[in-house]
Every structure is written in C-alpha cells, then in structure tokens.
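Service request form, structural biology core

Requester: graduate student, group of Dr. S.
Request type: structure prediction, single chain
Budget code: on file
Notes: please return the result as structure tokens.

Sequence provided:
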Amino acid sequence: MNITVKRLSPELKEDFLYFFDEVAFTDNEKWSRCYCQCYLEAAGEEWIQRSGETNRNAAMQRIENGTMSGFIAFEENNPVGWCHVGLKKNIKAFCDEPDGDTAVIVCFIISPSHRRKGIATTLLNHIIDTLKADGVQYIEAHPSKDLEKATINYHGFFKMYQNAGFDIAQEEEDCYVVGKQLL
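Core staff response, request fulfilled:
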C-alpha cells in the first residue's frame, strides 16, 4: 500500500469534504456531522445542537482561511485517513492552557476499509517530522485507556504513541496525556 500524506490546505478542501461526506463515518453515522469541528467550537449543549451542514460550512471556511490544521493520508488519489493536529492556542478546547505553543493531536479518522493497516502510524510519523521542521518544540496527545471501545479511540492508540517515543506526561481517569519533545 502506497500512502502519501499532505498537509491540509485550501487546495485539498474537496478531498477533505469527500473524505468526511463519503468515507470517514460510513460505520458511525452518529459522528458523521462533526467535520472535525468539535474541538474548535464550544462544548456542551451548543455543540450538540449543531447540524452537520453547519459544521461542514465551518470546516470549509476554516480550510479556506487557513485556521484549521491537519493532515490527509491518500492511497493513490483517494483520501483514506485524517489527523487533526495544531497548536493548542488555535484549538478552542485547549487554547486556555498555559502551554499554547505546544501542538496537540485532536483526532485520527481512518477509512473503515483501511483500519489496522498502519495509516495512523504513517500520519503520526509524518506529523512529527513536519512539526519538527516547522520549529514546534513539543507535541501531545490524549489516547484513551479503553482499547475495547473503538468509538472513543479516535485520539489514536496509546501503543502507537509509545512506539513513536511519546512519554506519559499525566494520567487521567479515562486517558493518558502523552507527549514528545521535538526540538
């Protein structure tokens, strides 16, 4: 399998939309309205009330103006994976934390037909290299402790982060906070 990874840009907006419209959630309709906007918007009741169309439009606008960041994995010309990653200071769910210049991995979404084939690991390795080249000093993630619930493992699997050299920075009730010094 030949996988290439590209940074999200306005030129890749249609690939991103195709992935979310047609591929990403064919096995989880409940999440199909997210368009990776959850961590960029207010949590709670306001988020629950948002429609898929509202989130899709917000994603399009953010992609066009460069305020949404992440990487798309392609097999040939077909998007098969996505990772939402960016600086904490640019992601509403994390922007009030004191280390706002740290990058945070928000989620991984892999096509149901491509899961367990190393695509998330390929994305992660590319992200580490790219962020290091960008001068980002530290990256963190929040993998779930519960491996049995696939629906909550969208943060990536703990073992994948361990294999990439991430260390446990903090242990919370349901997840680990893991991090890796890049520079």
